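User: Show me a protein chain along with its predicted structure.
Assistant: Here is one chain, sequence first, then structure tokens.
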Amino acid sequence: MLDPYSLFRMIWLLFGAMAIAMFSLLGRAAHAYVPKARVILEKVGKQHGKGGYVVQQEVTFRDEKGPLTVIEEWLVESGDSMALEVRGGGQRASATYKGRQKLYVDDKGTERSGTAGGDFFEPVFYYRGWDPLAEFLVKEKILPTKNLPRENFKKETKEFGYVPDPFVRLSRTAGVVAFALGTPTPAESATALPGLWVEQDRFLIRRLRLDTQAEVTADEYTEYSNNLWFPKVRTVSWGDQSVHMRVIKVSATKATPSARKRPDGAKETFTSPVIAEFYKRFR
């Protein structure tokens, strides 16, 4: 027969083991919960600030002659209203964007109106609502539709209930847990499927794979004025090329691209095929 101390010790150890098991199960259940796509995109949009911003960044290219760095200055009102000036290293360009409409000055100094590059991704980091983000992801074949309900209506019980989206899952990228939007790439596939990876804890875009296989990674996020969370470092990769971007300065401004009717008149000048391809395709 056990003495009272031994009996108490056994009961205490048993209680402790049960408590650890219970909290472990609860932790796994909480970790396994994946929000619906619309909820994720709503939270992402809330991290993209308010009002206008001027964003200056270094963009470094590499070709057979070695590295070459230009300075980009973006004037941003929102993901649908932006302006760009490029200078440095003998390169020059300017453009204004209204949605995907692009007004720019070509290499002959003629003002042109056209469509932004097919892989124009920059607005993704400035969209402030879930609907433009969803529209972009549908275009890139990451989401099947932009009609994303917050909850699903159960006809049999006449009430709303949680049903996970089949195109959202938990994943990892750059060493962090993330919500991955899009269809997983089959193991036997030679081509990676497009997708968006959103950091689980802060709802920040960490990786974007476009339908053309080009990829954008975003790291070292910093909070700027008016709740703009923006990555200090981004890398754009396609084929055997990669371009590195590092933020110099981000500041709030009352100036807006919508007040600028045309680019600043700078004649487009690119001395490297890699740079010319980047600005034609991604800008």
